[in-house]
Amino acid sequence: MMQDYFKKMRGTAQSAPPRVSHAEVIWSWIGAFLGIAAVAWLSHLLFTGTDLTLTIGSLGASAVLVYGAVRSPLAQPRNLIGGHVVSALVGVTAWQWLGGDPWLAQSVAVATAIALMHLTRTLHPPGGATALIAVIGSEEVHALGYLFVLIPATLGPLVLLLVALIVNNIPANRRYPEVWL
Fold first, then answer.
1. What is the domain extent for residue 119?
2. 5-29 burial, b for 16+ CB within 10 Å, e for fewer?
3. Residue 172 within a domain
4. pLDDT tens, 63-84?
5. What is the model's pTM?
6. Eight-state DSSP code of residue 93
7. Is residue 115 part of a domain?
8. Could you give the number of structural domains in the chain?
9. Residues 42-59: pLDDT tens digits?
């Protein structure tokens, strides 16, 4: 019985993932560059001198999905926006209710965000990071409270989405999104 359990850890694939074309690499790079540049530029333009920002680490992971894995169900608009919004709500709530026990707030935030993303069909792996950022963030992040859900957790992914809609549909062999809802 234990032997079968450990055999599962060997994996099933006999080779590395397939290579993508050079064109796919270039379009992924262009999309990620423009998407993150747009978020950073808008953040600088709108929020310099304030405690607000559009730039959070989880958006980098979202960029991998929406520009590098455009057909993945996890990269679709519903998942991109919904995953960040649900996770930010959970993360802020976990901090407010459990912030006195940071280890508990962190684990509850990520686990609950995953569960709620599953239930709402908005699973987006970077959402787990958004929930965690709401808990482990700076005092400025904590002071935002539920404003964190709007800025950066909704507005940032919306900017990535707008750039993805433009860039991912330029080459003939790419299409985004696969599905909206």
1. 22-167
2. eeeeeeeeeeeeeeeeeeeeeebbe
3. no
4. 999 999 999 999 999 999 999 9
5. 0.94
6. H
7. yes
8. 1
9. 999 999 988 889 999 999
